[in-house]
Amino acid sequence: MLKSLTRPRLDSVNPNPIAWVKTAILLGLGLYFSWLIISGNLTNYINQRFAWLAVVGAAVFIGLALVTIYGNLRADEDCGHEHFPIGWDILLITSLPLLLALIVPSRSLGIEAVNGGISLSPVGVASQAAFQRSPLDRNILDWLREFDRAPSPAAFNGTAADVVGFIYREPAFAEDSFMISRFTMSCCVADAFPIGMPVSASQAADFETGVWARARGELRAANFGGDVMPVLFAESLEAVEEPRQPYLYP
Amino acid sequence: MMRLSASHSAGPSLIKPLMTALALVFFLGATGYQAISSGIDYSLVVGVFATRFLGIFVEAAPFLLLGSITAGLIEAFVKADDIWRLVPRNRLAATVMGAFLGLVFPVCECGVVPVTRRLFNKGLPVSLGVAFLLAAPFMNPIVFASTYIAFGFGPVFIGRIVITILVAVIVGLVIGGFAKPSAVLKPLAQEQDHAHEHQAPPSVRARLLQALQIAADEFFEMGRFLILGSALAALMQTLVPQESLLALGTGSVLSVVFMQALAYILSVCSTVDSFLALAFVNAFTTGAIVSFLSFGPMVDIKSTLMFTGVFRPRIVIYLILLPFMLNLLAGVILNVALGY
């Protein structure tokens, strides 16, 4: 092999369609990964911090596709490929991610992915920096961490808060209250975990469950679902677009 | 080439039942979900499934690709003689070496299967390979660091190292105790090498090209299991409410069983499972957390399916049940020692 880099003769081109479908799948996956990176949809699936992995994935997929093209064009001199008789069933399975990506529009996990309740406890370890954020910059995860280490629920009485999340309700909630929620994600959606903080707002009924909203107001210890905890009494509640990074990274 | 093709007929026959099972699970799950929550739009459920499935695949595929390239390089450059020279003759010493081999080949659970397969192909002893397979996803510097950051130096960190090594060595010795490698490994994994040795291309450049072509095939061969496993994991996560599982997680034994089952279902990458485990620290016993962390990287849904491409079906069952029982035992002992 590699005796010459001259143009391949026609009779050395691999006539097996499976060999070319293999190339197409590798190339397709490479292009899909590239599209995820360019369009920004990658953050619907994995933590921003691991974006470099997708870059590696895109490069390797495209590189391997080129190698198989080279092999396909020199099928007669080659001993290094087709170690496994790859059949149509394998090709069908490996094209599953591409088919799903083409058919189902890309979206993040939202209210419909909440499968059995939302946690009031923080996730992951906080760096020191997370605790030094000023109250108005804290997101839902930062607040849950603050609540977790506070001596009493009343410790935040009167503190201003400004958070963005989707609205979550349970049948037992009072009419003017809901939880403002986000999914946290350490690695990818496999470990996505919904967390939320209680909100009380007079205009709560105007907001459907699942819509993204920004709640601004003051924290006060109050009864929520039978426990006394810090509740965000929202003076302002407005509908917002889903953030570009829909998940919170612990 | 014909020779090689003929030796590999076991793979596709396993795939069809798997596909059928998957379709059945999907159908039952979907109809069940439909019946329970008839108010919810069906397309939303498919959307959630697609997001979870693609998320797991996008995160895992680069690791599988790196594992495939490593496997290709091993195939093209490592000679069977080298392995024989380096492996200790004593089986116990060889198995212990397997448990620590991850420090030399830093691979996670998606990349470890193709690498182990190629090492077996070069004549690596079964006990050493199995210990490597089970321990390597945790026994590498990156996972040490993430566990340390999450839990500090304490019972969880030490417990995870000790239990991982012990379980990997014991399971390695048990499975290595089978009479012949052919009773453990699928035919391809041990026959391919000598069929190929005599025609190994001479130049480094040609060997690199060969390594990459093998890597491409390896991706398809192992990728199908990764993809089916990701689909199953995504399906479970979409359809099984976490709340109903959490209710089971009390007691020094049941909490460990539950956390191990969760580790199996979630199939989270070992590099970040420590951060996920932190979410459960308050609700679960320390033994349960440690078992979650030591069992999860060894076996989960996607690695089980990848195992079926390397090992005979009976051995795959041992490879799931033995680590499950041993980790459970270790977790319960730890719970008793800590007074839960």
Looking at this protein, list some descriptive labels.
heterodimer; A: 250 residues; alpha+beta; OB fold (Dihydrolipoamide Acetyltransferase, E2P); 2 domains; 5-stranded mixed beta barrel; 6 helices; 5 strands; elongated; B: 340 residues; mainly alpha; 17 helices; 74% helix; globular; disordered N terminus
Summarize the structure in words.
- Chain A has 250 residues and is an alpha+beta fold.
- Chain A is built from six helices and five strands.
- In chain A, a hairpin with an 8-residue loop joins strand 2 and strand 3.
- Chain B has one domain (41-338).
- Chain B has 17 helices and no strands.
- Chains A and B meet through helix 1, helix 2, helix 3 and helix 4 of A and helix 2, helix 3, helix 11, helix 12 and helix 14 of B.
Task: Explain briefly what this protein structure is.
The complex is a heterodimer of chains A (250) and B (340). In chain A, 30% of the residues lie in helices and 20% in strands. Chain A has helices at 17-39, 51-73, 88-94, 96-103, 128-132, 140-149; strands at 160-168, 177-184, 193-200, 212-224, 227-239.
What percent of the residues of chain A sit in helical stretches (DSSP H or I)?
25-40%
Tally the helices of chain B.
Answer: 17
Oligomeric state as shown: heterodimer
What coarse outline of chain B follows from CA principal-axis ratios? globular
Number of β-strand runs of chain A: 5
- Determine the number of helices of chain A (DSSP H or I, runs of at least 4 residues): 6
CATH architecture of the largest domain in chain A: Beta Barrel
* Count of distinct strands of chain B: 0
State the secondary-structure class of chain A. alpha+beta
Broad CATH class of the largest domain in chain A:
Mainly Beta
Rg over alpha carbons of chain B? 20 Å
Main β sheet profile of chain A: 5 strands, mixed, barrel
Average of per-residue pLDDT values of chain B = 80
Helix fraction of chain B?
over 70%
Most extensive interface between two protein chains, with residue counts: A-B, 69 and 79 residues
How many whole angstroms does the radius of gyration of chain A measure?
26 Å
Low-confidence residue ranges of chain B: 1-12, 189-198
The total tally of domains of chain A equals: 2
Global outline of chain A: elongated
